[in-house]
Structure formats: C-alpha cells, structure tokens
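Hypothesis: this fold can be encoded by more than one sequence.
Test: take the structure tokens below, design a sequence, compare later.
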C-alpha cells in the first residue's frame, strides 16, 4: 500500500495516508479531514469548515428563495390590484371604499326620496323618476360595497401571505437581516 505525506489543515501535523484515501482523521488534533488531490499536490481540508460553508450557502439560498417569492408576490399583487380599482372620470384609479358606497346609497335614497315625495304630493310622474333614482342609488351602493369588500379581502390575503414569507425569512438561518431591507406594505 502506497502512502502519501500530507499536513493536517487544522493543526499542521504531518500525516501519512493511503494513496486512495478520501477522508482521514488527524491523530494529533482529532479533526476530520477531506483529502484534496491535484496534479501537483495533495492537501487536506477540515470537514467542519466545509460543513459550515455548506450550511451558510444553504441559508443564503433559502433567503434568496424567500426574497424571490416575496418579489413575485408583490408583482402579482400589483397586477391583481388593478382588477379591484375604480377608474375615475379623469382616468385615475382609486381603491374602492365602503365610505363611498355608503355615500352613494345615502345620496341616491335621499335625492330619489325628495323627488318621489314632491311627485306624489303633486300627483306628478316625477315620483317615478324619484323611485328610479332610489333604485339606481341602492344598486350603485351595493356594487361599490361589494367591490370594496372584495378588494379588502384580497388585500388581507396578500398581506397574510407576505407576512408568512417575511416570517420565514426572519426565522431562517442567516435570514435575520432580510426583511428589514425589503419594503413593507400599507395596512
């Protein structure tokens, strides 16, 4: 059996190892070593260091995956959010609001009620217009409130998914500084 001379990468002690050995334990310091061979040299590498490097790389990959997942979730929300937005007359978009829905309903009922009362008092066909105005106001308020509710639920689901990813990112090994560097969302 042919032996090769190498030095322990941890303590520097000389070692004699079989030519076909891939791993060895240093009899001086007890370190587990991997034997690395090239065309011109035979060296050792402490397995503990390799294990720590692998763990660091694994943690970094996990952190990058979480950050990519978070970025994709944010991009998807930006695309999905437009479905819920209400286009104004000037072309701008606004979030649907329960307050606006309530206002539309109140204006529709009060305005239509005024027309209906005036029309009924005068036995005029304007009473029908008042009833129609009430109906349109109620329908518009219901549509607006449904949009506001759907938007709120979608935003809550997005915020929950985002929080779960941030929690994984924060809890993961080496991920403690990740979430603080990423933008947050408004509630």
């Amino acid at each position: 059996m042919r032996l090769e001379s190498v030095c322990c990468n941890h303590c520097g002690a000389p070692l004699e190892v079989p030519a076909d050995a891939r791993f060895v334990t240093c009899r001086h310091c007890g370190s587990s070593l991997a034997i690395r061979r090239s065309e011109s040299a035979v060296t050792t590498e402490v397995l503990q260091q390799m294990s720590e490097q692998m763990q660091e790389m694994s943690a970094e990959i996990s952190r990058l995956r979480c950050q990519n997942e978070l970025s994709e979730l944010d991009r998807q929300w930006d695309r999905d959010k437009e479905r819920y937005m209400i286009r104004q007359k000037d072309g701008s978009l606004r979030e649907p609001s329960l307050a606006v829905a309530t206002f539309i309903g109140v204006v529709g009922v009060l305005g239509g009620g005024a027309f209906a009362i005036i029309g009924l008092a005068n036995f005029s066909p304007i009473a029908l217009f008042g009833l129609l105005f009430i109906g349109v106001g109620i329908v518009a308020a219901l549509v607006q409130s449904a949009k506001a509710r759907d938007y709120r639920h979608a935003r809550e689901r997005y915020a929950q998914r985002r929080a779960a990813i941030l929690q994984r990112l924060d809890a993961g090994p080496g991920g403690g500084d990740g979430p603080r560097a990423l933008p947050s969302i408004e509630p």
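The two ends are 71 Å apart (CA to CA). The mean pLDDT is 82.
Hypothesis status: open.
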